Amino acid sequence: MASLASRSAPIISLQDIQAAARRIEGAVMHTPTLLSRTLSQVTGATVYVKFENLQFTAAYKERGALNKLLLMEEATRSRGVIAASAGNHAQAVAYHGRRLGVPVTIVMPTATPTIKVMQTEGHGAQIVLHGDSFDDANAEARRLEAERGLTFLHPFDDPEVIAGQGTVALEMLADAPEIETLVVPIGGGGLLSGVGTATRALRPDIEIVGVQAHFYPSMYCHIGGHDLPSAGTTIAEGIAVKQPGAMTAAIIREVVDDILLVPERDIETAVSLYLQIEKTVAEGAGATPLGALLSHPERFAGKKVGLILSGGNIDTRLLATVLLRDLARSGRMARLRIQLQDVPGALFAVVRLFDKFRVNIIEVYHQRVFTSLPAKDTSIEVECEARDPEQLQALVDGLGQAGFNVQPVGME
């Protein structure tokens, strides 16, 4: 993509990003960029991970928000700022606003999870719940901006925010200069715009790849001329943006080599791998770059790849669901539907086989009434856990040899 575009006057420059780095130094963490030997084995690439989930608010958004706040005149800051967000931008503005003594108002959709409202309130922001969608909340924020004389802080389509996000690249390239390819998540495009600008200036040889969730390909369509809907349910809600920014799209058109789409299943697997292998929590958006390596392995095989783990704010119940689904998909957890006679000892005979094959029983569901089986038969569904798919298959074979009708209850 970068080679096809005609270069115009830059919206931001390397000097803007370097100035932002000096401005925010000490108030935002220089997060580590580390080689992951195990993820390298899993993906076939040499994988370096930038752990932006270690920021105080657990996401890179602090960089752009703080740079923007520090560049405001004191009189402007004293009147207060306002933003529309249900996620990381809200917490970043609230946290650094309180540090600097800036009154902060955040408008969130009414359906925003309570935990996110509480976290943002905990950083000292005034919360306004309005509307059913982000668009509704954004419109209300712009109305309140005019009504109250506040300054609106855009989450991505702002050159000073973009410059702050670009400081991620300065740290990565200094800490892991051997990186050949950068993989960066795209929502509105602020992170990729800043990272791409810095990387093109410092290391024009590095390949820059943006990634989006399959259900929200807005930048992919805008840059590539594709016609796909941006709608659906994704665990990468932090990058579920229907309309990319005007500034960010202009920058990305010039600096990015490729944009890839990542299916939900691979994003879920990436979240699970980060927890299992790196012992770190990644939200869906933050895990999408790793998901790209899983869904496009041939694209990155043998390359030295830098992944930006952009954030770790994921609902704990959602995280639990993702981990359990991954166990099921990997064949380490299953639900078996077993038909047996409704007589004393039948269930015991089944349980004995689970013990014989050392498969752990998690839950048992016994069904006598709501079934089409003969009245003297019953069915049970057993959720179970094994060390690997082979152990589970040995159990299924053993149940069949003992005369039980067994049907694995699959998942899509």
From TrEMBL:
UniProt keyword Lyase, yes or no: yes
Domain ACT, chain residue ranges per copy: 335-411
Keywords linked to the UniProt accession: Lyase, Pyridoxal phosphate
Catalytic activity: L-serine = pyruvate + NH4(+)
Coiled coil: none
UniProt cofactor(s): pyridoxal 5'-phosphate
Source domain of life: Bacteria
SUPFAM superfamilies referenced in this protein's UniProt entry, alphabetically: ACT-like (SSF55021), Tryptophan synthase beta subunit-like PLP-dependent enzymes (SSF53686)
Single GO MF descriptor: L-serine ammonia-lyase activity
Gene3D superfamilies in the record: 3.40.50.1100
GO biological process, one term: L-threonine catabolic process
Protein family per UniProt: Belongs to the serine/threonine dehydratase family.
Name used for this protein in its record: Threonine ammonia-lyase
Organism: Allosphingosinicella deserti
